[in-house]
Amino acid sequence: MQVWLQGGPLVWVMLAIGAIGLFVFLERLFHLHRAKIRSEDFLQGLFRNLEYGHVEEGLKICDETAGPVAYLAKTAILHRDNEPDAFKRAMDNAGRSEISRMERRLVILATTAQVAPLLGLLGTVLGMIRALLVMNQQGPLVQSADLSGWLMQALVTTALGLMVAIPAYGGYNFLINKVEKIVLDMERAASEITAFLQAARMRKGVSP
Predict the structure, then answer these.
(1) Where are the alpha helices (DSSP H) in the chain?
(2) Under a CB-based contact definition with an 8 Å cutoff, are residues 156 and 13 in contact?
(3) What is the C-alpha separation between 189 and 186, in angstroms, rounded?
(4) Count: domains in the chain
(5) pTM to 2 decimals?
(6) Residue 208 lies inside a defined structural domain of this protein
(7) Which of 27, 68, 159, 162 gets the most CB atoms within 10 Å of its CB?
(8) What pLDDT is recorded for position 81?
(9) pLDDT at 200 > cutoff 60
(10) How far apart are CA 14 and CA 16, in angstroms?
(11) Which residue range forms the structural domain that includes residue 107?
(12) How far, in Å, CA of 193 to CA of 72, rounded?
């Protein structure tokens, strides 16, 4: 710990940024874990209730199931009697809303990955400038002890900046990958629920 403190005030700034990034990663990871469900099993149970006309039971299943797939299914059920264009708009709006909710605060992780190495570079530049000032002030007889503190600041800030940025960048890409997988589940589920409801309307003699 003593070594890191030689990096100066920028060390505390980078540690604070890293702590915020870690909190965001863990919070988003938990949120996306809850959002991921077995959509096939969920839809089978939902369709079974709808086939028997248990619409309220189907809505209850949607309410009790976490995640965007359940929200899309609920939206589809609530707008099942709308005209095709209105139904599609409702589904598109619901999908965009859920994607936005899943991607919330991910920009903080991306910003952390970009800002941390820049802060490290700033600390490096400041350390080197101060080391050069010491060399100019003390002339040809410069003591290594006079330079080591500033050189240590330069190295410590660079290292810490990378130590914060690399996990933040990896965590951001990891979460984005999970979001993309959930979005694919949403698209498949939306197609299935739409086809099911259209077939049900046709059976009732109502054009889709």
Answers:
(1) 2-5, 9-35, 39-51, 55-64, 68-78, 84-102, 106-138, 144-203
(2) no
(3) 5
(4) 1
(5) 0.81
(6) no
(7) 68
(8) 83
(9) yes
(10) 5
(11) 2-203
(12) 9
